[in-house]
Design a protein that fits this description.
The protein contains 11 helices and 12 strands. With about 325 residues, the protein is an alpha/beta fold.
Length: about 325
């Protein structure tokens, strides 16, 4: 399926997010970020803590105000001031799964209310019978029994709590789900179960995911395309396998060099790359966002682009993890 035949569900253009109202205290968290997400795909957003990943997700779902740029969902501009009807529509069609299942669930509420909260807010049901049917179906879809509706979150394990969080999202019948580090707070043995559940739900319900993470092994497993973000700027974006086999930007290469290898001998032999931002000569030769090969974008200046093109001719096999 070529990119011309794909339907763009979400488009972010030159997004800028700032915190602090005074000029002295102003902090730019996201700087002129642009990307799009195709309908039905899983788009990964990776970077270290504080890089702006979650800020972008929260801006899309309208939890963070935007200082500049535009966000389009299904062709409609959804950032800034919008009418109540569109706001209600976006609340239903875009949902979020949060990082910490314990902190994101109301400890004093029963599962029935937690999963129904969005339905109550938007009155997205005809009567009590339909609400209950929707909630029970959502629980079954995530592998939990309807009997759990009368229990409180503290009665569940971490994996079960995250399943409740997933149920709370899918009960709204969304099209896009922003998954913000959905498995980082879970035990390693439970992570694969939640990832497999998300993949099954995507096939079954035709979902689109924005998958925010810092675990690069997980990102490779679940995503179709990946954007790498550093201090509020996307530095590289490509199809997942293409990016993992041929990383170009030095920050991307530094991230990938730190991925643990399952073979102990290869793990001992690997060489860590340290990213030094001062290596770029951007004052005299500013960078541009360039499509260096089909569907592979990188932030670079002219001299760097020449070096990257040479690297693509003879890729470094050490990155074929």
């Amino acid at each position: 399926m070529d990119r011309k035949s794909k339907e763009i569900l979400l488009e972010v253009k030159n997004l800028r997010v700032e915190f602090g109202k005074r000029k002295k205290n102003k902090f730019v968290a996201v700087k002129d970020v642009s990307f799009h997400i195709y309908k039905g795909e899983t788009f990964g957003l990776v970077g270290e803590s504080g890089s702006g990943k979650t800020t972008i997700g929260r801006a899309i779902i309208r939890l963070n105000e935007t200082a500049g740029g535009e966000i389009f969902f299904d062709g409609k501009k959804i950032n800034g001031k919008i009418d109540k009807g569109l706001d209600k529509e976006i609340t239903r069609r875009i949902q979020m799964i949060f990082q910490d299942p314990m902190a994101s669930l109301n400890e004093r509420a029963k599962v029935d209310y937690i999963v129904s909260e969005g339905l109550y807010n938007l009155k997205n049901y005809r009567d009590e019978k339909e609400r209950k049917e929707k909630v029970e179906k959502a629980l079954l879809d995530v592998g939990l029994l309807p009997e759990f509706l009368s229990r409180f979150p503290h009665e569940f394990s971490g994996g079960q709590r995250q399943r409740i969080g997933v149920a709370r999202s899918i009960v709204m019948e969304p099209e896009l789900i922003i998954a913000d580090e959905p498995i980082s707070a879970l035990d390693v043995s439970i992570r694969a179960q939640v990832l497999n559940l998300m993949s099954e739900l995507q096939k079954k319900k035709g979902l689109t995911y924005l998958f925010i993470a810092h675990d690069l092994s997980v990102v490779r497993f679940i995503t179709d395309r990946v954007a790498v973000i550093y201090k509020g700027e996307i530095v590289e974006l490509a199809a997942t396998e293409k990016l993992y086999k041929h990383p170009l930007h030095p920050y991307t290469r530094a991230l990938f060099s730190a991925i643990p290898h399952p073979d102990p001998r290869k793990e001992r032999a690997k060489v860590l790359e340290i990213y030094d931002p001062s290596r770029h000569d951007y004052e005299n030769n500013p960078p541009k966002w360039v499509e260096i090969e089909p569907e592979h974008f990188v932030l670079a200046n002219e001299s760097e682009l020449e070096a990257y093109r040479e690297r693509l001719k003879s890729p470094d096999e050490s990155y074929s993890l």
